Amino acid sequence: MNADFIDALNEIEKEKGISKDIIFEALESALISSYRKNFGVSQNAEVEINKETGEARVYAIKDIVEDVENEHMEINLDEAKKIDEKYDIGDVVRIEITPKDFGRIAAQTAKQVVIQRIKDAERDVIYDEFINRENEIITGMVQRVSKNNVFIDLGKTEGVLPPAEQIEGETYSQSDRLKLLILEVKKTTKGPQVILSRSHPGLIKRLFELEVPEINDGIVEIYSISREAGSRTKIAVYSKDPDVDPLGACVGSKGSRVRAIVDELNGEKIDIVIWSKDIGEFIANSLSPSKVLKVDVNEKEKSAVVVVPDYQLSLAIGRSGQNARLAAKLTNWKIDIKSESQYEELESMEVEDLEENLEEDSVENVQDDVEDDILE
Length: 376
Description:
By secondary structure, the protein is of the alpha/beta class. Helix content is 43%, strand content 27%. The strands form four sheets. A five-stranded mixed beta barrel has the order 5-6-7-9-8. Strands 1, 2, 3 and 4 form a four-stranded mixed beta sheet that branches. A three-stranded mixed beta sheet has the order 10-11-12, sandwiched between helices.
């Protein structure tokens, strides 16, 4: 190592933000290991690097004793006094033992240490950048697919889209550009691992923030989202400004805004509904596109019976119950959907049961009165 090496460290410190002191500490530690490995000496040794010239020297550290039992670790008093008359029993002496070709070993080791430190620093920078971007949206390019994991080029690093976070039925080909949610960032020995998602509801939220300026500005807010990735999503929105229509803002002119999101998700259907403080109204809205005639709300049990026209019962429930299921997730209420005729039949049965109970109560009361008269 020489002055050029010191100049290189100064440049690294300036450009990469890696402290010279950190590199010197790592280098001294690595040089001790190299010394022991190359010269097979099991003794206390330390390496000292001149921070001005870059010259490295090796010193043996020995205890001063009367009788030497281990020549690698100890030195007798007479030998120590040849170095310095002031030494006494119990003192520690440093003896330079720098091998002749140690400069070559030092140079090779320095190169390896510096390269590794630069890699570590770059990994730390990437980790710090991405850890602060969790739950944000990012655009990446498909690099490769391996064991059902999709590896995405994010520019500075590579992200992984695991099977559980992929959209069912979606295919991924090399060079495809995708918008993804940064789900989690982990620190590993190989550097930061960025876990991405295409199926998380948070992706829908971020896509609407990108496409709808009113949401990005905070005028229109997203209340809740329920999603079955690749098939259908429901999103509840409301406006803080009475002059701004939240539904119109999200749909856009001729449906342009929502269409851009649907295209990004390869045709996933999106229902945009209006949130309301009135839970009955919100539940009715959540069952869009079905028309709702009546909502009976049970606040205590957070459940509701919803009445729809007979011809819209299947629409309200949806294929395999999907529309009802998404509405329940969106509102966080239990929803029981009845057709108009089913509800009327249920009501008539309840009335009949009530009349029967009243008649039974009347008969029992008459019998009680007769028994009371006989007893008297």
